[in-house]
Amino acid sequence: MLKKSAVFIFTLLVSTNAYATHPLVTDDTGTQGKGKFQIEINSEFASDSRDGGTEKEHSGEAAAALSWGIADNIDLVTALPEKWLSIKSNGITSQDASGIGDMTIEMKWRFFDDETTGLSFALKPGITIPTGNAQKGLGSDLFQESLLLIATRAARLGAVHCNLGYSRIEKGDDNARNHIWHASIGTEINVTGDLRAVLNSGIETNEAKASKKHPAFLLGGVICAVAESLDLDFGLKYGLNEAETDTAFLAGLAARF
Known about the structure:
By secondary structure, the chain is mainly β. It has one domain: monomeric porin ompg (Porin, Beta Barrel). It has one helix spanning 2-14; strands at 37-50, 55-71, 74-79, 82-89, 92-100, 103-114, 119-129, 144-155, 158-169, 179-190, 195-204, 216-227, 230-239, 247-256. The protein starts with a helix and ends with a strand.
């Protein structure tokens, strides 16, 4: 138990996971600035029911996300989450696993920024390395390439973020889609100087060719600045159809230095 706890804590401290401004799924164009860092410690606890409620899945993730400003408008982000998964069918456990997930390396480049209008655009290419155990459901066992186009419109009362993403997974399976698209929109509202309310919705291509339902979600939450360089956040995510996970609770913190 001591060894497992030490490994878990070490993973939280030195591994990373690529996140948008948590709890938002939709990313923004903001970068840290040259020579600056941001570390996020985030968690997610999800619950899903299938086959009329006879199969229930509980899953979660805990990770530390590190962003490094290699230039004023360029961030480098790496990712290695710690995951756990439990599936029960008719009350009997059919799967129970935990361990590291797939490693991700991404770079965010803000290539356009108009301070007058508050409009900015960024590109975020990335690669996923199959470090998670696919047999246990913790990884994909495949390399994945991705590209995300990000747009942000910031104003005095808040900000709106839009994402359009594409990823390619060469599964070699006739029943699976190799090309996955993602679209989402997120809104931040400045409630007070230290409190922001967030609302997020999005949809993504279903990896199963046989399914015409694509996972869609709705998320609401808050971000609270407890100090000048420290934020706490909480969120609830709901699946809008059967293809998406039913519910998920998110919590995290972000520290900048």
